[in-house]
Design goal:
By secondary structure, the protein is of the alpha/beta class. It folds into 2 domains: 84 residues, Leucine Dehydrogenase, chain A, domain 1 (Rossmann fold); 133 residues, NAD(P)-binding Rossmann-like Domain (Rossmann fold), CATH 3.40.50. It is built from 10 helices and 11 strands. The strands form 3 sheets. The chain has a 6-stranded parallel beta sheet. It has a 3-stranded parallel beta sheet with strand order 3-2-4, sandwiched between helices. Strand 9 and strand 10 form a beta hairpin.
Length: 294
C-alpha cells in the first residue's frame, strides 16, 4: 500500500510558517506582504481560483486585493492597470488570472508585469533564470511538487524522473527544476508527450513519475513500475451521477490501480493542488523581502 503524499497538510504547514513570519513583522511595526489578483471577466472557475488565493492570503495575514475588470477591457487598458500595480508599494506580488478574453495577448500581459513582482513565475526573465539555475520566482505548481518531495524526504538525486506533459506551466518548469544541481533535484529527467510512439516504454523506467497531461485516469497500473513515486498534477472534472454537483474531480492517474504498485502517491484532490496556492504565498513573501529589504 502506497504512502499518501498529503499536499493539504504540507500546505497548511507552510501557511503556518508564513503566518508566524507575518506576526513578527507586525510586532516590529513593519509593512505587510501584499498580493493583487487581476481577474478579467466572469469565468466561474477563475472566480473560484482567485477567491481561494485571497482566502489563503487572509489566513497568513497578507494584504490582498481582487481587481475585477470587465471582459470588454482592451489589452492596452489591462496593461495600464498592471503598470499601476507595478508602481504600487502596497502590493509586492501581481498575478493575472488566466484564461483572458479573446483579443488579449497573454504573452504581452505576462511581459507587462514587473519581474520583481512576478509571483506566478511566468515572466520570460523568470523562466530564463530558472533554466540557467539563477535565483528566481518558480512557477507555483512545479515549486509545490519540489517542496512535497523535500518534505517527504523522497530522494531525487540520480533518480530517473519521467514527466508526462510539456506545458509551460508544469511540464517544462518542473523538468528544469529537477535538473538543477541542488538539494531536492539533481535528477535524470525525461519529458514525454503525445509524439511518443509508446508512452509505457518511458513511464515504466520512472523512479518518479509526474503526470501532467490533462487526461483523466490516463496513467494506468501497467504503466508504472513497482515502488515508483507518482505525482499526479491532473485536475479533471468528470460526470458523476452520484454526486450532488453532478461531477467529481479526478487526476491523470488511475489511483486505484497505481496505488497498489507505487511507494508514494499524491491524491486528487488534496495532493499537488493545495501546494500551488501555498507556493504562491511563498513567492509573494519572497517578493516582499526583496522589495522592502526587511
Amino acid at each position: 500500500m502506497a504512502i499518501l503524499i498529503d499536499g493539504k497538510k504540507v500546505a497548511e504547514e507552510i501557511k503556518l510558517e508564513l503566518s508566524l513570519k507575518v506576526s513578527d513583522l507586525k510586532a516590529n511595526g513593519k509593512t505587510l506582504p501584499g498580493l493583487v489578483a487581476i481577474l478579467v471577466g466572469d469565468d466561474p472557475a477563475s472566480h473560484v481560483y482567485v477567491n481561494s488565493k485571497s482566502k489563503a492570503c487572509a489566513q497568513v495575514g497578507f494584504i490582498s486585493k481582487i481587481e475585477n475588470l470587465d471582459d470588454r477591457i482592451s489589452e492596452e487598458a489591462l496593461i495600464d492597470r498592471i503598470k499601476y500595480y507595478n508602481d504600487h508599494n502596497d502590493y509586492h506580488g501581481i498575478l493575472v488570472q488566466f484564461p483572458l478574453p479573446n483579443g488579449i495577448n497573454e504573452k504581452n500581459v505576462i511581459e507587462a508585469i514587473d519581474k520583481k513582482k512576478d509571483v506566478d513565475g511566468f515572466h520570460p526573465e523568470s523562466v530564463g533564470n530558472l533554466v540557467i539555475g539563477n535565483d528566481s520566482f518558480f512557477p507555483c505548481t512545479p515549486y509545490g511538487i519540489v517542496e512535497l518531495l523535500l518534505r517527504y524526504k523522497i530522494e531525487t538525486e540520480g533518480k530517473h524522473v519521467v514527466i508526462v506533459g510539456r506545458s509551460n506551466i508544469v511540464g517544462k518548469p518542473i523538468a528544469n527544476l529537477l535538473l538543477q544541481k541542488r538539494k531536492g533535484a539533481n535528477a535524470i529527467v525525461t519529458i514525454c508527450h503525445s509524439a511518443a510512439d509508446d508512452l509505457t516504454k518511458y513511464t515504466l523506467q520512472a523512479d518518479i513519475l509526474i503526470a501532467a497531461i490533462g487526461k483523466p485516469n490516463f496513467i494506468r497500473g501497467n504503466m508504472v513500475k513497482e515502488n515508483a513515486v507518482v505525482i499526479d498534477v491532473g485536475i479533471n472534472r468528470v460526470e458523476d451521477k452520484n454526486s450532488k454537483k453532478g461531477y467529481k474531480i479526478i487526476g491523470d492517474v488511475n489511483f486505484d490501480e497505481v496505488e497498489k504498485k507505487c511507494s508514494y502517491i499524491t491524491p486528487v484532490p488534496g495532493g499537488v493542488g493545495p501546494m500551488t496556492i501555498a507556493m504562491l504565498l511563498e513567492n509573494t513573501y519572497k517578493a516582499y523581502i526583496n522589495l522592502t529589504k526587511n
